[in-house]
Automatic annotation (TrEMBL):
TM region positions: 21-39, 155-174, 181-202, 208-233
Source organism phylogeny: Bacteria, Pseudomonadati, Pseudomonadota, Gammaproteobacteria, Methylococcales
Name of the protein: Elongation factor-1 alpha
UniProt keyword annotation of Transmembrane helix present: yes
Keywords, ordered alphabetically: Membrane, Transmembrane, Transmembrane helix
Amino acid sequence: MTTKFTPLKDHDTPIKVLFTGYLCTVGIGYLFALIQILFTHGMADGKFGLSVDDIVYSYYGNRSGTVLEQKLNGSMKDNAPELERFKIMEWVREGADSDDYKSEGIDKIIESRCVMCHNKEASGIPDFTEFESLKALTTEDTGATFASLTRVSHVHMFGISFIFMFVGLIFSFAETTTTQYKCIAIGMPYVFLVADILSWWLTKIHPMFAWLVIFAGMGMGVSFIFMWVTAILEMWLFKPVFINGWGSRYLELRDSTDASLADRLWSYAKALGRQIKPAAAFVVDLWLTRGWPVVKGWFKKIS
């Protein structure tokens, strides 16, 4: 296959070391991100491991209890003995009175178990040196706030998109993948990133969208692993894998004149796209001519 770029295996060694160093660093970072999810969202239901309930509790909330109780039974469960956690929850259920806060020794427990992290210097988490901040968590658990979702959304949008930009740039020099599949692999993370962040907001509104959070996260992971593994193998193990190893069979199938299942699916997708385009144009035109004027009329009545 004729290429108009320098394949990964033919780059100078310093360039390959640079690419490999970056890929290994972000790969380790991605791994730690997954571990962090397991110890935060994955503990929302009090059990280790990510589940749909964890996603629901994290974004929609557990409306059957307070925020503080859910945290003490979930991600913060290991940070205090059971007796102390029960004492705090008992105080919450009795109304979280400020006088009882000191008389029952709740302040001492909070100071010894929580303030080391929940203090004025910490950003993004409540400051438990102020009673009002703790009191605010004794209300019904409604999950993530819209303010926190806004903050986390824009951080993820900017940060993760840069990661995938550089991973995709390195992967674009791969020669074992056809151009159309490169485009799919490079574009997939951005689609799933937007879907992932959108699913947080949708789950905040209704818990049924929790499945979308998991699906979008898996999609990002699969595309990341595919690009990462392909780039590493082509840079350092091209001959043993793609010439003398199992990868040679893949190259034979890639260069075969027979249309593969993936090729047929791709052609079906393009045909479907051509069918959807006029329908989408019709919907947009319908919205602009009929829908939007009605909405504008509602806003005028409200104002």
